[in-house]
Structure formats: structure tokens, C-alpha cells
Automatic annotation (TrEMBL):
<protein>
    <submittedName>
        <fullName>Sensor domain-containing phosphodiesterase</fullName>
    </submittedName>
</protein>
<feature type="domain" description="EAL">
    <location>
        <begin position="24"/>
        <end position="279"/>
    </location>
</feature>
Amino acid sequence: SAKAQGGNSVGVFTEDMNDRGERRTIIEMNLRTSIDDDHLMLEYQPEVDLRTGRILGLEALVRWNHPVLGKLQPLEFIEVAESTNLAGELGAWVLDTACAQLGQWKHDFRELDLVMSVNVSPVQLVSLDFDVYVKQVLEQYGLLGSELCLEITENVVVGDLRRTRSTLAKLERLGVRIAIDDFGTGYSSLGHLKSLPVDTLKIDKVFVQNLDRSEGDRVIIDSIVGLAASFGLDVVAEGVESVGAVSYLLDVGCVRAQGFLMSKPKGAEDIERLLEVGALTLPWNVDSNDSRR
Ligand code: C2E
Ligand code: MG
Ligand code: MG
Ligand code: MG
């Protein structure tokens, strides 16, 4: 058996697992082969219209089923990928897998107009010919550019502005949508919003999670929604965990959101069950004024 074969070394391995440095070493050692060995997988979190529950799109979120460490969350290995030259390969796998999946769902659920959102790491975005790769993947799976939304963080925007601007312009010509992820926590300036071809602001979940309890967060949300409106951008809230947050978002006119309250990220099979209905059953009554603040 595996246990007999591993003997003591497995025991030592397990004992050291909690050690951060040790975990990181394991992650570093295994990341490259994880891509080839099919140990990575995507989960998808629905983005919904808070008024109707209609599923507007899905965000692809990578997970790694590590044979020893178990299911790893991306924050633990994305950073390793970035610092070990694997971000490009990992990102390419995610983009390809997410687009293949959307191609399939587009075929299976023709009546839904779904957009697939994919997180793009800074390294990927500034890599040579990123737009060429995106174009090729879209063509391969029969997708329109407008069916893909690439999520970049504010810090990418400030990184290599020239490169970023030129890549985003090429992606814009493909019709691909661009969202600024985790908006409100980074360092981009309003000038960037004006000069870059961005379509959507995704409000960081730190501002959404405590909406019910934090007046400061409500002010920030209100400002971001107003900012988006002024620039003609769409706005999406992430991290919706309470009905209170929903009612505030609806009050200020933010109707698109993701959050555990509506749905956690799920594997493809579970998502298919939701797509068969096309909308989520919302845990609040949107027609009733009682649910409003
Ligand atoms: P993100 O792009 O901002 O994704 C949203 C994260 O918030 C996801 O965590 C999601 O599971 C979580 N989330 C969604 N709704 C709620 C909620 O109501 N409450 C709480 N507490 N959390 C919620 P996840 O999957 O662990 O991903 C974390 C981050 O890792 C992502 O943040 C993104 O920056 C990065 N990431 C994930 N997948 C990829 C990928 O394929 N490529 C790259 N470059 N980064 C990725
Ligand atoms: Mg994201
Ligand atoms: Mg555009
Ligand atoms: Mg976020």
C-alpha cells in the first residue's frame, strides 16, 4: 500500500506540513508537474443580477488538488507561480480550460448569455503576445471576445503602464472585456480609469462583507458606484454574504454581484445544475420593500 511504501517519510512529510516554509517548498517542487498531471481544477462562481437572480456570468477560480496537502486555495500557490516563472503556464492552462468550458456551456445552454471571467496575473498580462494567445483560444472554442472578461488588479495597472496600455488596447480590439479586480484596495489613480479601456470595476470584498456594520464601508461602496457611473463603467460587488449587503447594494444601484450568500464557487457539474435553471433562487424577496433597508 501507499502507506507501507511511504513508511516513515510520509510521517515526517505530514508533520512538517504546517510549517509555512516547508509547505512552500512542497508547492514549489510540485507546481510544474501539477499542470501536466491534471491536478489543477477550476471552480466557477456565478455572477448574478441581484434583482432577479439571473446568472450573468461565471468567474473561473483555480484550485489545486495536491496529493499530500489536499485542496489548496489559489492565494497559496499563485504567488509561488509568479515567483518561479510558472505564472505564464498556469495562466495559460486556466484561460484555456475556462474558455473550453464556456464553449461547452454556450452550446448546452444556448438561451443564456454567459460571460466567463478569468483572473490574469501581472506576469501574464505583460508577456509578449498575450493578446495573440487570447485570440487563438477564443477562436479555438468558438467564443466572441465579448464573452470573455479578463480581471486584472489595480497594481498591474500601475506596474508597467505602457505595456499594460498597449496590451489592453489590443484586447479591446478583440472585444474582450476588462475588469479591475479588488477595486478600492490598490494604487491605481483616477487618471488610469480615464485612459485605459476598462469596462468594469469589481468592488473588493473587504468593503462588501461588513456593509451592514460599517458606515465607512457604505460610504466607500457608494463612492465607487458613483465613480463607475461617472466613467460609464459597469460595477460588480464581490463578497456578498448578507441580505443587508444586498439591500444596500440595490439601494445605491449596484445590481451585479458575487458572493457566498448567492453561491460559493462550485465545480462544473454543480454549476451545470444551476445553468439548467438559469437563475439562482435568491434568499430574499426582491419584490418586497421589507427586504430593503
Ligand atoms: P478574486 O479574483 O478577487 O476572487 C474572489 C475570491 O473571493 C475567491 O477566492 C472567492 O472564492 C472569494 N469569494 C467569493 N465570494 C465570497 C464571499 O461572499 N465571501 C468570502 N469571504 N469570499 C468570497 P479564491 O478562489 O480563494 O481566490 C482568491 C484569489 O486568488 C482571487 O481573488 C484571485 O486574485 C486569485 N485567483 C484565483 N484564481 C486565479 C487564477 O486562475 N489566476 C490568477 N492569476 N489568480 C487567481
Ligand atoms: Mg477575480
Ligand atoms: Mg472595452
Ligand atoms: Mg477580490
